[in-house]
Amino acid sequence: MNGFLSYLQSNWLELSGVSTGIICVWLNTRQNVWGFFWGLISVGLYTVIFWEARLYGDMGLQIVFALLSIYGLYQWLYGGVGHTQLHVRKLPRHFIGWLLALTLGGTALLNWVLSRLTDASLPLLDSFTTTVSLIAQWMLGRKFIENWYLWLFVDLIYVGIYVYKNLYWTAFLYGVYLILCVMGYRDWKKDLSPVSLT
Question: Where is the chain membrane-spanning (predicted)?
Fold first, then answer.
């Protein structure tokens, strides 16, 4: 019992990040705007966790996630036609090329910064997952259903990264995210708007 309590005490920050992260994504799958509130708490905790793990791309990602959460909250409430609630829709095809170019450019730029200016662990992989995650979070905020595909892809990679970095609770969290991605896609598909707005 003492060993378990000691473990909880030494890992309370990561366990808190895991708990708030699961609440956030579960609420997102339900299209509940309170998910953004829990997301803000989770990113604050993970900013500290990733700083300690020297995953600076992921740390910076948390700060941008906070800004994108505020953006997403506004979009979900007022981003629809006539400042009404935003509905689930498909990503317009003309965005695909831009998002691919942004993925390549963002990864290259961030990798250059992390490789030359920090002691980052796994700079290329960290840069790629950071860039893809930012795009997925923006898509979530705009309620493009394809955000779940990107999250599923990048969360698979994150599980491996966090196991490698001995962040086992965070790896578990991203394993749960994989399940939530499938649930989110399934639930959002039921509400998919036939009209795709930009």
Answer: 12-29, 36-53, 59-74, 95-114
